[in-house]
Design a protein that fits this description.
This protein has 124 residues and is mainly alpha-helical. The chain contains eight helices and no strands. It folds into two domains: 85 residues, no CATH class; 32 residues, no CATH class. 76% of the residues lie in helices and 0% in strands.
Length: 124
């Protein structure tokens, strides 16, 4: 179910789409949650950050525990989340470099001095 709800509807086969539609027709709460998930996915892919406060209000009005909790956590730093959903900048390159360095460090833990670690990082 989770996979069906989090995937783009076009990525589902006809059979799975029909099964999802059947399940959602029998559970109004799940249908509401699925709508919130799809709306949030649209905000993510379409860089629609300014829509976030309205989405949070809609989720809050639905009174579903999971999505409401998630929405309330987003409110903790609304400006940053809105910027993340709006701006085209990404820290993906930096995160990739940090993860690569951590991987090398884990591989060499207890086996090498800092000079070898430095060379391994600079060579790769």
């Amino acid at each position: 179910m989770t996979g069906w709800l989090t995937r783009h509807p076009a990525a589902l086969s006809e059979e799975k789409r029909a099964a999802l539609k059947n399940v959602l027709a029998h559970c109004p709460e799940l249908d509401t949650a699925a709508r919130h998930v799809r709306d949030f996915g649209e905000m993510l892919t379409g860089r629609l950050g300014p829509m976030l406060p309205a989405w949070i209000d809609a989720v809050d009005a639905s009174q579903l525990p999971g999505p409401t909790n998630f929405a309330h956590h987003l409110l903790r730093d609304l400006d940053a989340v809105t910027a993340g959903l709006t701006l085209h900048w990404s820290s993906g390159g930096t995160e990739g470099a940090v993860n690569r360095i951590k991987k090398i460090k884990r591989q060499l833990y207890g086996r090498a001095e800092s000079e070898l670690l430095r060379k391994m990082i600079l060579l790769q």
